[in-house]
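Notes from the pairing session

We agreed to fold both candidates in a single pass and log them together. This is the raw record for the first candidate, unedited. Please don't reformat it; downstream parsing expects exactly this layout.

Candidate A
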Amino acid sequence: MELMDRERVPPVPFDWDRDRDQVVVLHGVTWPHYVALSDARGESSRPLFAYLDGDLEIVTTSRGHEFIKTLLARLVETYAEEMNLRLNGLGETTWRNKARRAGLEADECYTVRKKRKVPDLAIEVVLTSGGVDKLEIYRRLGVREVWFWINARVYVYRLNGKYKEVQASVALPGIDLDALARIIAVADEDEQTEAVRAYRKSLRKRA
């Protein structure tokens, strides 16, 4: 999947150098070594790990990254509440499949159906080039829908054997992803709640 060409411009008005994520990729990492490193973090999911076929991506996220993913999650959850949709948040849970040599923590992930062993929806904020192919990891894990925030846009991928970019979410029917992107692009870091309230108000007017 060609995601990297979409990453060249900072998505929100942060200091691009300050808010770039720090990414390191280690090669030749065995599955037991990955699991040991992952488990050594204890209850924390920091730094974020993504493992694929012996390559281990280690990411320390920036303040800008955390702002985007947190506000996006709050908007998504507001939409689900207002539209009376099932949505269960699982945050940065670690997902692994030893047989398929793949594992990671999403920035945010959700289930929309009961008793799911993997998320129905995963969200990734991409601010820095490089790293492992996360869509391939998600494919091996069986996650049906993945959103990537890149360059102030949300790109949606649906799994049907392989991922295909689509224009609308199936996990959250009717959600206007361009509207979410516009809200985040102009939101002030200290006014997240105001942005969420304004979005909720707009949804109620639409209803």
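Candidate B (folded immediately after A)
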Amino acid sequence: MSRSSRRTFLQTSAVAAGGFFVANSLRAADSDSPNEKVRFACIGVGGKGDSDSADAGKHGDVVAICDIDEQRLDKAAASFKDAKKFVDFRQMLEEMRDSIDAVTVSTPDHTHAPAALMAMRLGKAVYCQKPMTHSIYEARLMAQVAREKGVATQMGNQGTSESGLRKAAATVKTGVLGDVSEVHVWTNRPIWPQGGPRPEPSECPAHVKWDLWLGPAASRPYAKGYHPFAWRGWWDFGTGALGDMACHTVNLPYAALDLHGPVSVEAEHSGHNQESYPKWSIIKFEFPATDKRKALTMYWYDGGKRPPKELFGDAKLDQAGSLIVGTKGKLYSPGDYGAGWDLLGDVNKPEVEFTQSPGHFTEWVEAIKGGPAAMSNFPEYSGGLTETILLGNLALWAGKKVEWDAQNMKSPNCPELEPLIKPVYRSGWTLDV
């Protein structure tokens, strides 16, 4: 088969399978060998970036690595001896644009969008850690750019690829629970400090490039308590307990019930200073009816708060999980990923069909090579999931019920939330083009 014939074959196969074909960035599509390795660049190689870059190494060649922490960068370089090292992902993407096919983004939340958007605009496939973005507008924009560029994308909510989650979603869609009226989701987060004032400025370690760590966020002095982990609790950098875990724990209800575009969100919480997220919160999301289900309410709990125990009957309430409540029965999934679950009440599990995943990262790599889109791709799945979840943080900030116009990405009654919905990036960083 000639190169042009093989390219046409892969494009046709990908479209037929509902996948996105990477016309400009996929080297394998222009090669005579369907087994030619994907070339990865990894942005963020410590923490979750350690396992994400390791997955990239198992599925292809890691040719470039980037981290603002030179100690983490050097540690990763010991595993990827042929990879070029960078501290600024903008420089890496520009310099390596003709030598890479795909990019992993495993950085603090506030730099997900600028890194992923630049990569996609260069025609590169992107795997981005959860939550997909720091703001709602960024999530909408990333989905839009992924669709326009036709690149293979995936968010790092690994439960999406669990057979248990997929089977549970298919089970709910059979109607076995009756009309669903409520969803309850809870977590054991936060496991980092939240609710306090900014830490006192201190001298930045020489191996940390602080200005690059800040990225598009407003400038502030370095202090202990941001890098490398506790940034999750700060409004400017993280998305709190909700952003950290809801892309996992809301994942099953989202897949089962199509929880797009709530019409309102409101929250009660311990209070916060608009610097750090509250120590605990309970957030209420109201979803309108669709052609497949009635209107319903979702409740989120963190910081030690839990749903009412009477909802669970004799079932043990786990430290994290989700509960879907219907008129005929309930589906309870303990833990973070939706992999295990059971039906509560006098209902039996129906036989259902669902598509097995080859593995979360593998699913994305197969999409890069012309296969079906990964389930948690940006345009059709994870963009909408991220938007829904981040709305909860608007309610935390507002201190009142937030009405939501999903189509126009605006709150009719809280126009003051606009800077949180669509951030203004610091000079030198790009959101819109």
